[in-house]
Amino acid sequence: MTKFSSHFLTTYSLVAIAVVIAWSSVPIALSQCTTINFQPDQWPSEATVYFNFGNITDPIQRQQIQTAIDNWNAANSSNNSRVQFSSAPPPPGARTLTFQNGSLPSSPAFTSTTVNLQTREILSATITFDLQRTTSAGGLWFDPAGRALMTCL
Question: Whole-prediction pTM value?
Answer without folding.
Answer: 0.68
